[in-house]
Each structure stands twice: as C-alpha cells, then as structure tokens.
TrEMBL record:
Highest taxon of the lineage: Bacteria
Organism (species): Streptomyces evansiae
Name of this chain's protein: Protease HtpX homolog
Comment on bound cofactor: Binds 1 zinc ion per subunit.
Subcellular location: Cell membrane
InterPro entries: HtpX_protease (IPR050083), Pept_M48_protease_HtpX (IPR022919), Peptidase_M48 (IPR001915)
Short name of one Pfam family: Peptidase_M48
Gene, per the UniProt record: htpX
EC number, UniProt record: 3.4.24.-
Membrane topology classification: Multi-pass membrane protein
Family matches, as HAMAP family: Pept_M48_protease_HtpX
Length: 302
C-alpha cells in the first residue's frame, strides 16, 4: 500500500483490483505447482527450489532487471538539473520520498517507473521524451509515473506478470525432468505429462488477461491521480497527444525493441484499434484517457 502521508488521491478501485488480481493469479499458480508436484513426485525438490529461487530473484531484483533491460542510466542533479527539479516539485506536492532518477538513451518518447517500494523506486525518461515535451507536459508525465510508485501498482504488475511467465518456465522444466525419468504414453504418468502443457497454457492465458485488465485500469488511475495532484490535466493531455502522435514517426525496429516493456511505459510502443487488440492491450485507448482528463478539467474548473 502507498504511504498514508502521500497526497496522491487514493483509489479504492485500484486497490481492490490489485488484491483481486494477485489473489486469482496466485491461486492459479498454486494449482499449477500442485499439479506438477503430484505428477512429478520425484522432481519435487527441483521444482520447489527453482520456484523459490526465481521468485526471490524477481522480488529483489525486478526493478534492476527492468531498468537494465530498458537501458536506464541513473543521473545526478548535476547531470540533469531540470529533470531533477521537476521530480523534486512533484515530491514536494505529493509529500513523497524522492525516487532515483534515470535517463534512457532512446528516441522512443516514453517514461516508466520501477521499484518494489518507495525506497527502491526509480523513475526514468527517454532522451526522446525530453526533447519533445515542454516543462509542464514533462511534469504531468512524471506525476503519472510517480503515482505508480505511490500506489505500489508497479510492483504488483511486475509480480503478477512474473507469475504468468514462471508458470511456463516451471512446466517446461518439469516436463523435461519427467521425460528424462522415462515417462511414456502408456502409463498414467505419461498421460499426465501430456496434459501439463495444456494446464500451463490455461494458467498463462488467464494470468495474461488478468494482468492486462489491471494494467489498463492502473493507467487511467495514474492519469487521474497526476491530473488532480498537479491541477493541470490539460498539460498531461497535451503530453499524451504529443507522445502518441510521435510514435508513428519512430522506426519500426526501435518500437519492436521497446514493445516487451509496454506494460511499464507511459504510452505503449504499439497500440491496436481492433477490438481484440484493445482486449489484449496493456493501456486504454488514447481517446479514453483524453476523455477522462477532459472530465477532470471540467470538474476542477467548477
């Protein structure tokens, strides 16, 4: 949970969705591991040790792994005084612990936040974003990203996504272990081994859809919290419009490289207008986000 003294607007809907998503994915995960342990009895020490090691590694190093993968380079106030100045203002407004500040050398205009709590939080912007946004627009984007830290949803998303991926890894490892023990299709164990990939696929698919639902809601929540904190929803709307419009000018190769990190980004590298694409998207549509900011602006003006 966010620290009680943070001035970011609380969002009970986000809290309920995070708890529900983690519970359901955790339940799926426990069922999958239980099936593997029941079928591959001789491999249970390997399964438990591998699961525990991977989960601990993800819990403690998820922020570093994500930052490294996206090319984030931590910068000091002397190296990026303007950027640090914006972060300092947001921290003062929100009464929030200052996160580490980083820059990623990429022309893809974007920003993201990582960290399991305020102490380990890192907020990063790309050089492409810094070149394209005005100061008030940058403040809106960073307020959006830092709300993810305050609400702890960036941590929940990291763990939730990890559990789905881990389901597939465990299944492949357990299947390989079972096959090397001489399992065959003529005995019950051999038949069970053939069913494990189906169970894994179901767990992964349900987990994927749950995290996508949570991801879309958390982006709307972050937009709302940032707009209320800064009091300038129009600046955030301008940043959204500008960044989304600039994405079409970025080389496809660069967008493909950034696509695996869409769930963490301010704006996805790729977005779909198809119904199925929107269902699988990590972000709500641009129009949904702009409509919400327009309503907030009208409320604030009254």
């Amino acid at each position: 949970m966010a620290r009680s003294r943070s001035r970011y607007a609380p969002d009970q809907g986000l809290t309920v969705r995070m708890v529900t998503t983690m519970f359901l994915i955790g339940l799926l995960y426990v069922v999958l591991v239980g099936v593997l342990l029941a079928v591959l009895r001789g491999a249970w020490p390997i399964i438990l040790i591998a699961v525990g090691a991977l989960f601990v590694a993800q819990f403690w190093f998820s922020d570093r792994i994500a930052a490294f993968g996206m090319g984030a380079r931590e910068v000091s106030p002397e190296q990026a005084p303007e950027l640090h100045g914006v972060v300092d203002r947001i921290c003062a407004l929100a009464d929030l612990r200052k996160p580490r500040v980083a820059i990623a050398d990429s022309d893809v205009p974007n920003a993201f936040a990582t960290g399991r709590n305020e102490r380990s939080a890192l907020v990063c912007v790309t050089t492409g974003l810094l070149r394209r946004l005005e100061p008030e627009e940058l403040e809106g984007v960073l307020a959006h990203e830092m709300s993810h830290v305050a609400h702890r949803d960036v941590f929940v998303m990291t763990i939730a996504s990890f559990l789905g991926v881990l389901a597939g890894l465990i299944t492949r490892m357990a299947l390989w272990s079972g096959l090397t023990r001489g399992g065959n299709r003529n005995d019950p164990v051999g038949v069970a081994l053939l069913l494990i990939p189906l169970v894994s696929a179901a767990v992964y698919t349900i987990g994927f859809l749950l995290t996508r639902l949570l991801s879309r809601y958390r982006e709307l929540s972050a937009d709302r919290a940032a707009a209320l904190l800064t009091g300038r929803p129009s600046a955030l709307a301008s940043a959204l419009t500008k960044v989304s419009g600039q994405m079409s000018r970025i080389p496809t190769r660069d967008l493909r490289q950034a696509e695996p990190y869409n769930a963490f980004f301010f704006v996805p590298a790729f977005s779909s207008k198809e119904s199925l694409g929107r269902l699988l998207s990590s972000h709500p549509t641009l129009q949904q986000r702009l409509d919400q900011l327009s309503r907030i602006s009208a409320q604030l003006s009254r």
